[in-house]
Amino acid sequence: MAALWPKSVVRDHDTLKVPVFSVHVATHSEPPKMVIRTLQALLIQNWPTDGYEVVGMDNNTADESLWRPVEAYCLQHSDHVKFIHQVGLHRCSQSNVDDHRKCVALG
Q1: For the segment 26-35, what is each residue's pLDDT rounded down to a tens digit?
Q2: How confident is the model at residue 46 (pLDDT cuts 50, 70, 90)?
Q3: Which among 13, 24, 52, 98 has the fewest CB atoms less than 10 Å away?
Q4: What pLDDT, on the 0 to 100 scale, is given for residue 15?
Q5: Between 73 and 91, whose confidence is greater?
Q6: b vs e for 10-26, b when ≥16 Cβ sit within 10 Å of the residue's Cβ?
Q7: pLDDT at 87
Q8: Please, are residues 74 and 39 in contact by the beta-carbon 8 Å criterion?
């Protein structure tokens, strides 16, 4: 079966240009083993490693035992995974998206 390529893919002799994309894994107080397994699964995709980035984002998890192991994993794989631990963000939901002040970092 032939692969179906998006129209944006350009075949240029031996060079194949593929769309580049970013995957964000947003977490809050999640078990670190589950988050790490998710990141591992994203890293073994059948896609050129320079064709995508993976960003692990932890939002307001106070318990360091939950986000520090994820941070350590990301640092070990920093050529492919970035990590952000953000504190001081208000909770954003569809009901308060119009009030952008509730969705920005404090300070």
Answers
A1: 999 999 999 9
A2: confident
A3: 13
A4: 58
A5: 73
A6: eeeeeeeeeeeeeeebe
A7: 87
A8: yes
Q: How many Å apart are CA 56 and CA 30, to the nearest integer?
A: 12
The two structure tokens encoding residue 95: 């009901």
Contact 18, 49 (CB under 8 A): no
**Number of residues in the chain:** 107
Can you tell me whether residue 69 is helix, strand or coil? helix
Q: Are the C-beta atoms of residues 58 and 84 closer than 8 Å to each other?
A: yes
Cα separation, 77 vs 41, in Å, equals: 13
Structure tokens at 76: 């070990």
Mapped onto helix, strand or coil, the DSSP state of residue 8 is coil
In whole angstroms, give the CA distance from residue 39 to residue 78. 12
